[in-house]
Amino acid sequence: MSRSAHPAGPRHADVLPEGHYSAPPADLNALDPKVWAETVDRAADGVVTVGGIPVTRLAEEFGTPAYVLDEADFRARARAWRTAFGADADVFYAGKAFLSRAVVRWLHEEGLNLDVCSGVELATALSAGMPADRIAFHGNNKSAEEITKAVESGVGRIVLDSFQEIARVAHIASSLGKRQRVQIRITVGVEAHTHEFIATAHEDQKFGIPLAGGQAAEAVRRALQLDGLELIGIHSHIGSQIFDMSGFEVAAHRVVGLLRDVRDEHGVELPEIDLGGGLGIAYTSDDDPREPHEIAKALTEIVTRECEAAKLRTPRISVEPGRAIVGPTAFTLYEVGTIKPLDGLRTYVSVDGGMSDNIRTALYDAEYSVALVSRVSDAEPMLVRVVGKHCESGDIVVKDAFLPADLAPGDLIAVPATGAYCRSMASNYNHVLRPPVVAVKDGEARVIVRRETEEDLLRLDVG
Ligand code: LLP
Q1: Can you list the domains of the chain with their CATH numbers?
Q2: Would the CB of 110 count as within 6 Å of ligand 1?
Q3: What is the CA radius of gyration of the chain?
Q4: 421 ligand 1 Cβ < 6 A
Q5: Non-local CB neighbours of 60 within 8 Å, separated by 6+ positions
Q6: Which three-class secondary structure state does DSSP give residue 230?
Q7: What is residue 12's predicted lDDT score, i.e. its pLDDT?
Q8: For 315-339, how does the pLDDT look when each residue is reduced to its tens digit (9 = 90+)?
Q9: How far is the CA of 309 from the centre of ligand 1 (A)?
Q10: What is the pLDDT of residue 18?
Q11: Per-residue pLDDT for 3 more than 60?
């Protein structure tokens, strides 16, 4: 690995500029288990390993950048959610966080269900053998073709998002001679404490039917009248990267209030409620996520209490965690390219990927951490901004972090907690090719989504 000398950037806490960072960590070589996948470790020679494999070997074999996914950790987290909710509830993994055939098989084997939100996500799930009745189909603008495919394949539920969709799904199901199980997604008017773009339960946004003004009650009225629909419950998803359970508490209270009104008006007790996903994970050492068993206990208690108060039978609960299962299980492995110290500011470290493999920093101001993983270093901490190779100054992967001051081109660095919404939101900006997803387990590594090639991109260009 080449090491080129470069002038040092700012290093000491007393000369640091404004930023989102806290003080440099006591030991830059330490890997906080909160943000790294379960089997990540640093071997005696200083190289970080995952599933028993050194990252240097992964980089040689699969190239960089690469998403490296710890399969044992994924399975363990999926199982923890499944076990925490038990037999009286269902866990639907939200495929939008990251979906591939291997992931579908792991979920199937671990007893989870799957939430999809496009025709191709549905096709991916079915092609990997997920039974259709364990699939929920979401989306605020499903096409007639997607709905037809979902109904024909026998999906377990379609989550209805608008009045037009209630009519459309009923019509398509009837014309196929079927009665489709559906839930109605409502907005309960909760302001989740998260970024505006990922908050979804306030009323002024595109998802769901507002509870306010009796609209959700009207949606139930219509759905109950239509032969093509079997209304099984109400759905609420309040947002993403949430740590505070109080939003779920208010949501459950309002959803149960609707179930009570439905019982009073129609004499029908809807048997299910879905409280969505959105549980936060640790992106940096400052984040303190809850364990699945704590979340399950809290949600079950809230729903049970609300139903007792409303004199309703407790409905079957389902949840849809995406990020909380896959997010912590992967890191992105990059090779360091150019290093540019800016006096009195920070050192810009460029990597061989960027906003095309992780748009979350640019889009949500997301915070990530980073570590030197191909060796250890005793050098003092240097304040860095990890940036990509794209033609855009907002192409930032990690806004502010510390890396050793002897960092050099050719070193490998890794950004943890990139399992969710990184590969699934990746782009080809600047015709940069999307990285592979490499799954590791018990000393073996295999590609589960291959790296894009120049031919892949050129094949689309038929002009
Ligand atoms: N259920 C529904 C209906 C959803 O809309 C979502 C996420 C989930 C479940 C899963 O949420 P999770 O547990 O993964 O937070 N791209 C953004 C997140 C958008 C989430 C969209 N819906 C991000 O990178 O933070």
Answers
A1: 13-70+328-457 (2.40.37.10), 138-321 (3.20.20.10)
A2: no
A3: 24
A4: yes
A5: none
A6: strand
A7: 44
A8: 999 999 999 999 999 999 999 999 9
A9: 30
A10: 62
A11: no
